[in-house]
């Protein structure tokens, strides 16, 4: 038997962009990274799920790297830990797996070094590490986040979302963010930028009002990234061509290759069955928006068996 963890960190997955909200809109979704934290004599990470097989098991793990960097930033010594990692967030699929690890690392340092960081301070640090605010913001705050980062500071709005369900079409292949960014243009024609900005502005207004019909229309009109990335994700092109009365819109999740469908509440199971018949080569899952972000569990638990 193994003693109960000192505490547990639970971080939701996230989707980003939602079409034209490039690097600025994020939404927390119902997949999770869970980290049980045990006192230990060295750094150690143990994966409890096949999805995490192959991730570094020592201080080279992104979670530990992040925590150690935060501790050093505040001139603190981070004590050694053994981390038991459980996750149903697929890696390199556009569902914020790296963002969840970064948020977990910041929380690990905050807890162990008693930094007492505010949520805003955590978000700024996470954005500095990730380079953009969308995934880390959603993972930290939950719900919808709309924000921007100018290289020095962040500005953002966060709010809960209630009136939509999600169906994810998850291809079997990985798509690294760096490769998905390679296909983006280095510049846009000025008028295209204005048009894209207008579409993104209407998308944000529609999301804040939960007008999902309008939001879905705006998702179709992105000029910033989806037109360039659809060559890498044929499922995105196919989903744009399909129509279903309960599907408001679709968007590439982050850099892909996962594509999310935003559907009428109560219809996710029906839409999942329909999409699975079309995308038999993909995993098709129903997801929910989650309005709680990262969560720390301190209560004592019964001893668990060693893994």
From TrEMBL:
It comes from Bacillus yunxiaonensis. It catalyses: L-homoserine + ATP = O-phospho-L-homoserine + ADP + H(+). PROSITE patterns: GHMP_KINASES_ATP. This is Homoserine kinase. One of its GO terms (molecular function) is homoserine kinase activity. Residues 204-271 form the GHMP kinase C-terminal domain. Keywords: Amino-acid biosynthesis, ATP-binding, Cytoplasm, Kinase, Nucleotide-binding, Threonine biosynthesis, Transferase. It comes from the Bacteria. Pfam families: GHMP_kinases_C (PF08544), GHMP_kinases_N (PF00288). It is found in: Cytoplasm. Its EC number is 2.7.1.39. Pathway: Amino-acid biosynthesis; L-threonine biosynthesis; L-threonine from L-aspartate: step 4/5. ATP binds at residues 90-100. Catalyzes the ATP-dependent phosphorylation of L-homoserine to L-homoserine phosphate.
């Amino acid at each position: 038997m193994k003693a109960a963890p000192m505490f547990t960190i639970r971080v939701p997955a996230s989707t980003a962009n939602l079409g034209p909200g490039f690097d600025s809109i994020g939404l927390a979704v119902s997949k999770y990274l869970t980290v049980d934290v045990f006192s230990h004599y060295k750094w150690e990470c143990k994966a409890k799920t096949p999805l995490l097989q192959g991730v570094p098991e020592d201080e080279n793990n992104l979670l530990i790297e992040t925590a150690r960097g935060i501790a050093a930033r505040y001139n603190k010594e981070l004590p050694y830990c053994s981390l038991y990692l459980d996750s149903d967030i697929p890696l390199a699929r556009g569902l914020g797996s790296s963002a969840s690890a970064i948020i977990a690392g910041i929380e690990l340092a905050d807890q162990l070094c008693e930094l007492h960081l505010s949520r805003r301070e955590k978000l700024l640090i996470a954005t500095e590490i990730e380079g953009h605010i969308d995934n880390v913001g959603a993972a930290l705050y939950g719900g919808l986040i709309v924000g921007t980062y100018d290289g020095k500071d962040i500005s953002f709005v966060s709010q809960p979302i209630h009136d939509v369900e999600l169906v994810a079409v998850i291809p079997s292949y990985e798509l690294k963010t760096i490769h998905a960014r390679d296909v983006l243009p280095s510049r846009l024609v000025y008028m295209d930028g204005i048009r894209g900005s207008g579409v993104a502005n209407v998308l944000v207004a529609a999301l804040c009002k939960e007008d999902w019909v309008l939001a879905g229309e705006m998702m179709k009109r992105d000029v910033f990234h989806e037109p360039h990335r659809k060559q890498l994700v044929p499922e995105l092109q196919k989903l744009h061509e399909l129509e279903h009365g309960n599907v408001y819109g679709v968007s590439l999740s982050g850099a892909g290759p996962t594509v999310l469908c935003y559907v009428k509440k109560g219809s996710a199971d029906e839409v999942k069955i329909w999409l699975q018949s079309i995308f038999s080569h993909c995993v098709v899952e129903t997801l929910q928006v989650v309005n709680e972000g990262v969560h720390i569990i301190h209560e004592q638990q019964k001893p668990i068996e060693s893994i």
